[in-house]
Amino acid sequence: MKVSDVGEFGLIERIAEILGEDFGDDCAVVEHLEGKILLTVDVLVEDVHFLRRYPPETVGWKAISVNVSDVVGNGGHPRWVLVSLIVPPDLDVSYVEGVYRGIAKACEFYGCKVVGGNMSRGEKIVVDVSLVGDSVKPVGRRGARPGDLLFVSGTLGDARAGLELLLMNRKDYEDFELRLMEKHLRPTARIDYVRHIQKYATASMDVSDGLVADANHLSERSGVRIDIDSSKLPISEDLRKFCRKYGRDPLDYALFGGEDYQVIFTQPETRWNPFMDMTPIGRVSEGSGVYVDGERKEGGHRHF
Amino acid sequence: MKVSDVGEFGLIERIAEILGEDFGDDCAVVEHLEGKILLTVDVLVEDVHFLRRYPPETVGWKAISVNVSDVVGNGGHPRWVLVSLIVPPDLDVSYVEGVYRGIAKACEFYGCKVVGGNMSRGEKIVVDVSLVGDSVKPVGRRGARPGDLLFVSGTLGDARAGLELLLMNRKDYEDFELRLMEKHLRPTARIDYVRHIQKYATASMDVSDGLVADANHLSERSGVRIDIDSSKLPISEDLRKFCRKYGRDPLDYALFGGEDYQVIFTQPETRWNPFMDMTPIGRVSEGSGVYVDGERKEGGHRHF
């Protein structure tokens, strides 16, 4: 049986059996002395997650951001970064420097620090980043309670549209198209939500695989039903333009597009802060599964 | 300019400039609350560090061991492991399970725990392990003092001989050859030295790049001269047999062979513990550089 036959989640289940551990969450929480440490790792592989023609700075920026997003989604602050880089021997040194400039900028922005790393050769470029964070109160995915509302930060679906535009590999793009591509290339983890999540969220995580896929994770872990109202989904004006131009349905992008690196979280309605870009898009109740406008929805991004 | 032109250390220097950080050591030490945390990452890449035909259990075992070795070399205990795995979609699931069985066995042996990970597809298998350890007293490479002796645990050069035997890819091997190959495939990090290193070593590190290369790291970091007496080098009976059979010089293997994952450390002669397999092989004095029998030696393993 091949890896592609069982898929990412099938493989994770088999591994969990071997390890006798539960590691379904993107971000592990361990205790150290009187505090909690968050641990996460995420990788960017050439030709899988990025192409050689993308600016190397964006690859470095994104490698940090996707990890910070995991920690932020758990109500943690990013602290220490390890960078494991695999590069082909004939790669230009300036490319590697570009990746690290992106890493350095991202670390400065998020307030974390590269403390170590590793360098190896290989055929394809791999940027594997491990991040250690800490939190006075990691939130996790298990605490959603019936009666909570489901909120999402920012807008959804832009990164997926940006990816499609990037793959068109055109010479000229309109301004709104460049902005969408930027959303894919240089996502910003929602570090500005950490305090709010720590204080008010009953469950939270970042949206990396797509809203429906990740809401399903929250629902499973918390043992609750989540109803999403598609009319409430925050969709950017740029994504609407994109969908009009190319004849697409923005809801498809908002529900199933991955890599937005926004956060979703559940909390009582009373904790809605109108000064932040959070939108209530759903409601938690007893039961199981994720429903969009009353219809059960699963799936999302598959890694194999 | 290509990556292969500047080499691993040239690349690290350029990166350190961009990050404005010092990260020459394999193992980073950071402060968390009242304690110290050790962070390290090391990767095994198919066709660079291992071949597909090696037993997958040994790949998993080794991926953990090389990281534990970094932490042990710093006087720390391994605690939490993140495993980032890249696998081709057509890889057999049983291979992945084998890798994880090796990882699980190693973690049980060393007393650490896989708390998270990541899975991605790619053309070649990559096992990238990040390890978080802790230590009441990280030792580092900076404290070697004139008058200290240089000690090494175990024997040196076996892993290199084992690698050469593996690459012969024969059907039949003699028993001592199988033992040497096992040393390459399934190295054991010297977790049994952690307490001694914490208590008595003035500087320490693991031997991964080869004795001369790693002694040079110690010498540079501590700002001292190290004299190694080649007649004292601990060489196994198996390596002697190998060298007689193939007409090689065991000193070459002991001085320059990598991947033994023993520890070298400096300490006062009075701290020599004859019940452990430590051998005094050299002496620290004022000055700089590593000398073997009075002759300056540099270099060792290069990653590009």
Show the helix and strand layout.
The structure is a homodimer of 304-residue chains.
Chain A: H1 3-19, E1 28-32, E2 35-45, H2 56-72, E3 77-87, H3 93-110, E4 113-121, E5 126-135, E6 149-153, H4 158-168, H5 175-185, H6 194-200, E7 203-207, H7 211-222, E8 225-228, H8 237-246, H9 250-256, E9 262-267, E10 278-285, E11 289-292, E12 295-296
Parallel strand pairs in A: 3-4, 8-11
Antiparallel strand pairs in A: 1-2, 2-5, 3-5, 6-9, 6-10, 7-9, 8-10, 11-12
Helix pairs in contact in A: 2-3, 4-5, 5-8
Index terms:
36% helix, Phosphoribosyl-aminoimidazole Synthetase, Chain A, domain 2, homodimer, 60s Ribosomal Protein L30, Chain: A, alpha+beta, 5-stranded mixed beta sheet
| Count of folded domains of chain A | 2
Portion in strands of chain A: 25-35%
Named at the architecture level, the CATH assignment of the largest domain in chain A is Alpha-Beta Complex
Overall pLDDT level of chain A: 94
- Look up the CATH topology of the largest domain in chain A: Phosphoribosyl-aminoimidazole Synthetase, Chain A, domain 2
What oligomeric state best describes the polypeptide chains here? Answer: homodimer
**Percent helix range of chain A:** 25-40%
What is the CATH class name of the largest domain in chain A?
Answer: Alpha Beta
* Biggest sheet architecture of chain A: 7 strands, mixed
Radius of gyration of chain A, rounded? 19 Å
Largest interface, counted by CB within 8 Å of the partner chain's CB: A-B, 75 and 75 residues
N-to-C CA distance of chain A: 14 Å
Biggest β-sheet: strands ordered side by side in the sheet of chain A: 7-9-6-10-8-11-12
The CATH H-level superfamily of the largest domain in chain A is PurM-like C-terminal domain
- Which term fits the overall shape of chain A? globular
**Number of strand segments of chain A:** 12
Number of H- or I-type helical stretches of chain A: 9
What string gives the helices and strands of chain A in order?
HEEHEHEEEHHHEHEHHEEEE
Low-confidence stretches of chain A: none
Helix and strand composition category of chain A: alpha+beta
